[in-house]
């Protein structure tokens, strides 16, 4: 064989190997990922040839497919659309899929690897293909209470409620919400029109504020992590005392820190760590943070989940807590400002970990996958995410949170529930100034758990643009998220 023929033969053989490798990657290695891609419209169109499984809350379908006479064969419907939109997401011809519709698509559409033998048997028996149903962990009473409290107040915000000892997500609410039915009709023209209107809505209803979006400065709820880091390291205890000025000049900076009350933290010359948590004072917390290594609090935050990839199975935007560059940044970060940002899910994990004796459970939204013949195909069980603090530290922080509710001076006292020991912490985060130099409205927080002696629910509430000038730029607006959190906790405990 002459040289040119050898070259051509080797080239063709090499191309065959590349083609074989590519086909193998596409058809086998990457097949599940490509099918699950929300931009893969072929998967969605093929999915309409199958009766898609339902998404369930307490056994009742909140997303389901019904037969039609058109070419799509099925119509995806949502029985309580806006209420559960942050959970279900949507399944749309033209706009892809989000929420559990995307995260659990293979199970819902019946194309998952676990359903291979079911598909094979159905083919042999002549049974029409059908997807499996997904049972969620959502507590309908908690979800309804969360959405009602937010919408009745006209708030843009979110609520996440978690069962501390398991990680089960009991409520996942985001407002303003939207109706997934607007994006799941069998009319592409209607879907495109409706999607454009939702995208252009200044309220951003398509953003799931509970787990994603631009994230929020956590404000004073972040002080729980400062206290946890200090107590766990043996550098403080609730009775530890700190200087109590009305103003604190930050080191190597022209900035001056004040407490939300614009006065001292109590009447004494010294303020304890417990006073700082109960009354949500900035200056003692900043002094404590500056007395520790600059990486101490960010490392504690990371142990609770900040900066880590979390899937519930919806992808959660990682919260951020960078290591400060100097003492001034350390002080500002310690009160949940500067570059510290968090999702409500992350803050709920902090309270849940404290409630659970220092053990943070991995949050999860899916209880089990149920086959069309009602067999439990997959069941999800609690898993430990991390153990960032000891039970002694958790008890100490939890006790200070409880005093924030039971103490008459506590800013979280409106979270009190008759006959129940409740732990809570409020937060008010500043958001800078506008182009004219005017202070922007605040971001308001509440997080807590109940009952203290047998925690059944941990909650985090965030409300956008609800503080500020209307409350003289003070912490007096803390009753807004606190009332929401109380309502959700009551809903869980009343069952």
TrEMBL record:
Domain of life: Bacteria
Cited InterPro entries: Beta-lactam/transpept, Beta-lactam/transpept-like, PBP_dimer_sf, PBPA_dimer, PCN-bd_Tpept
Domain Penicillin-binding protein transpeptidase residues, every copy: 157-477
Pfam families reported for this sequence: PBP_dimer_2, Transpeptidase
Domain Penicillin binding protein A dimerisation, residue spans: 52-134
PANTHER family in the cross-refs: PENICILLIN-BINDING PROTEIN 4B, PEPTIDOGLYCAN D,D-TRANSPEPTIDASE
Protein's name according to its UniProt entry: Penicillin-binding protein
Native species: Leucobacter allii
């Amino acid at each position: 064989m002459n040289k040119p023929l050898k070259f051509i033969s080797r080239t063709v053989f090499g191309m065959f190997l590349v083609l074989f490798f590519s086909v193998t990657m596409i058809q086998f290695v990457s097949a599940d990922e490509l099918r699950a891609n929300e931009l893969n419209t072929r998967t969605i169109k093929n999915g309409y040839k199958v009766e898609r499984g339902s998404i369930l809350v307490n056994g009742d379908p909140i997303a389901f497919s019904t037969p039609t006479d058109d070419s799509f064969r099925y119509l995806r419907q949502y029985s309580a659309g806006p209420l559960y939109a942050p959970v279900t997401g949507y399944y749309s011809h033209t706009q892809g899929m989000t929420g559990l519709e995307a995260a659990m698509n293979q199970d819902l559409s019946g194309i998952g690897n676990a359903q291979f033998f079911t598909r094979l048997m159905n083919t042999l028996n002549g049974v029409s293909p059908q997807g499996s149903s997904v049972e969620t962990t959502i507590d309908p009473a908690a979800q309804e209470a969360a959405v009602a409290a937010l919408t009745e107040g006209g708030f843009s915000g979110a609520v996440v409620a978690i069962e501390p000892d398991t990680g089960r997500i009991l409520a996942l609410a985001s407002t303003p919400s939207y109706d997934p039915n607007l994006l799941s009709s069998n009319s592409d023209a209607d879907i495109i029109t409706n999607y454009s209107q939702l995208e252009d809505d200044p309220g951003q209803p398509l953003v799931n504020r509970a787990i994603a979006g631009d994230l929020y400065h956590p404000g004073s709820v972040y002080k729980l992590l400062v206290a946890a880091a200090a107590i766990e390291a043996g550098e403080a205890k609730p009775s530890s005392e700190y200087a109590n000025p009305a103003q604190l000049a930050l080191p190597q900076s022209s900035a001056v820190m004040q407490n939300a009350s614009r006065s001292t933290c109590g009447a004494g010359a010294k303020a304890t760590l417990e006073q700082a948590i109960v009354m949500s004072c900035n200056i003692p917390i900043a002094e404590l943070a500056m007395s520790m290594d600059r990486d101490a609090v960010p490392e504690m935050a990371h142990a609770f989940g900040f900066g880590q990839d979390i899937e519930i199975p919806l992808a959660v935007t990682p919260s951020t807590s960078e290591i400060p560059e100097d003492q001034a940044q350390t002080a500002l970060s310690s009160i949940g400002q500067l570059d510290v940002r968090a999702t409500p899910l992350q803050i709920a994990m902090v309270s849940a970990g404290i409630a659970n004796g220092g053990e943070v459970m991995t949050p999860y939204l899916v209880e089990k996958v149920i086959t069309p013949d009602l067999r439990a195909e997959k069941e999800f069980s609690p898993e430990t995410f991390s153990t960032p603090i000891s039970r002694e530290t958790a008890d100490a922080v939890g006790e200070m949170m409880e005093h924030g509710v039971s103490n008459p001076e506590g800013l979280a006292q409106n979270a009190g529930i008759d006959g129940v020991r409740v732990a809570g912490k409020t937060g008010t985060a500043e958001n800078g100034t506008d182009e004219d130099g005017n202070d922007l409205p605040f971001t308001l927080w509440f997080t807590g758990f109940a009952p203290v002696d047998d925690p059944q629910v941990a909650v985090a509430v965030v409300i956008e643009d609800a503080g500020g000038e209307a409350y003289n730029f003070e912490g007096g607006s803390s009753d807004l998220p606190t009332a929401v959190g109380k309502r959700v906790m009551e809903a869980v405990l009343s069952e």
